[in-house]
Amino acid sequence: MARYSFRLPDIGEGIAEAEIVAWHVKIGERVEEDAQLADMMTDKATVEMESPVSGIVVELAGEVGDLIPIGSTLAVIETDGDGDGEVEAPPADTPVEEEIVAETPGAEEVSVAEVAAPAPVATPAPAPARMAAPAHDRQVLASPAVRARAKDLGVDLGQVQAEGDRIRHADLDAFLRYSGGQGYHAPGASRARADEPVKVIGMRRKIAENMAASKRAIPHFTYVEEMDVTALEDMRADLNANRGGRPKLTMLPFLIVAICRTIPEFPMINARYDDEGGVVTRHGAVHLGMATQTDAGLMVPVIRDAQDKNVWQLASEISRLAEAARTGKAKVEELTGGTLTVTSLGPLGGIATTPVINRPEVAIIGPNKIVERPVFDGDDIRRAKLMNLSISCDHRVVDGWDAASYVQALKKLIETPVLLFAD
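-> structure tokens emitted (423 positions)
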């Protein structure tokens, strides 16, 4: 028998270690050449590791959630050949196929209103699974861990659907959510679910780390202002009624236009702060991040040069980036380099929010739900559509007066939407 030690290759520039986010094999199982061994996550991507040989898995480097140094042994496989061998990491110039997960986000975990959230990663996490009648004609593929968990929960895996080639924990979670949020109840079983410890790993760990770093390092303050969007909503309805084959307009493209038109007067809002260097870079171009909820967690795709796009172009780009985020196909450059972020609870609404800044940016804007209320207009009372808009800023860089002045400039454009298109 020969033993091959598969060493973790360099799967990202400057990466010293990677996290195990999924094993596709276990000790004692046979694995075929080119079959999946594990999914490994770096700061930017999740990469599928494939077996270079066929044989029996005799050693694995660790458990899901463990960090493995680059160059260390990931798995040992016993083959039928003679002698001993070792599989080295690919040369530095050998590309490793990867799918991007997300720029480590700092924005709060909410979805952009117009980017309907729900995903994810290496093997893209499936969309929420649906309950279905038992599929007697299909073979149910799942790892022993998933099968054991399903058995403990009393779940028939034949009822769980997945877009991938096997049922994973994410599919089981989605099935449980779909079945009413109270868990799945097998006939005769207790209606109370057992406590379930969930290890914080993968993207969730990245989000947790960056959220904590953002709150520790940045002295946040939030300013909220009410805006009358009645005229803007009327304009949006008129444009949609005559849009032809162009994408349907939501509130977000108009808000982005307003943000970009007011930035030149308030450059401190569109900036990034280098803590270590003590340098604030005020950016001329607006690379706008959209905090978007996916099955894998929060992702922040970036609209490049938003200031150069009209509402129709912005609507198309919003749709394209949202789809890329949901399917895990977003590229590195589409998930990095933002200078300002917009985030919203969308259809969930909310009177006001206090969003967390997407570090190293210095501000984040959060539109809230639109409500209809009576308002005084002189001596008359009229029906108006009102929306609160929140902005959180880094008080080391942005003063309260500046943030309030910026939002008032936004308010003027939003409440008089014809100004959005005036030169």
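The longest helix spans residues 311-327.
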